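We emphasize that the prediction below concerns an isolated chain of 352 residues; any contacts that depend on oligomerization or on bound cofactors are therefore not represented. The input was used exactly as deposited, without trimming of termini.
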Amino acid sequence: MTLPSTRRAPNFYGQSHAALASRLLEAGHAAYRATQVFGWVYQKGLRSTGGMTSLSRELREELAGLFDFSLPEPVSIQGTRDGMTQKFVLGLSDGAKVECVSMRTDRRLTFCLSSQVGCALKCSFCATGLMGLQRNLRADEIVAQVVMMGDFHGWRDERFNLVFMGMGEPLANEAALFEAIRILREPHGMNLGARRITVSTSGLVPGIRRLADTGIPVGLAVSLHATTDELRNELIPVNRRWPLDELLAAAREYGERSGRRVTLEYTILAGVNDRPEDADRLSRIARDLPSKINLIPYNPVPGLPYERPSPESVQAFAESLYPRAPAVMVRNTLGGEIWAACGQLGGLSPAS
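Result of the prediction step, given as a token string:
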């Protein structure tokens, strides 16, 4: 007697077009059905097989057994008072929870994606590092964040951007990251252009080079936050493994190979990295790269010993860079009231 299989069907959102076509061929169906299914899911917004009317009823039923079309359960969705930012807490199949954020400005909608549950890097000013690393996300769990936030917003924004700046270090989970990016870029699916995707890293030099090797010219953001190895070792411990000279060489190489400017992310910590000599060194670093500087006023995290700089000191720091750096932008804080701003993800709530 043959016992029924207990193997769980793979999640659909982790399938590339090629993998889907191959699986359908194995099941005795034409490969072109993969294009139809991708269209129904990613272009027409179906989340189950029942409404895929270009497919036979038999194939629809078979698809429901071949793949798991379920998405993570939203544990909570919190919005700011102005309705411009939402934080999604998603419950994963093993009980883990991960957070992602949608942010709207006058110019665009941006989805901030997570790549891990927690983070192992322990950057000293970041809430996520306090969690430690629970596990990597799978490619389907990364793609699902985009699908769920797009569904929430009704897919009204055709030119939304994706930034891998949520929970975790993306390049510490590069296999799932690269596969998710490929799925999101599938021409028969979401068809997202590389210029709408940015990957942020705290400084994993080999990962930067492997990202360049993919040949997908996504944006690269380097979490710099300090201009000397002494301070960066304190703020971002991974700097002890790949110090500034190695990191900046890899960033320069990435910019040259991708044809894109690298974003230097610099969180301003009051009294820590906002001195005139810090600005001098930061401007020299920026001039030596194809780069732009993104200044981020520190977003407070309970229990951490840092303070947010005043608006006046942020402006003074920015103005000291303007004549000498290629491009400088001060990032507006979005989502701070719901603990959804940069460096605040990790299970905090406004009541914490």
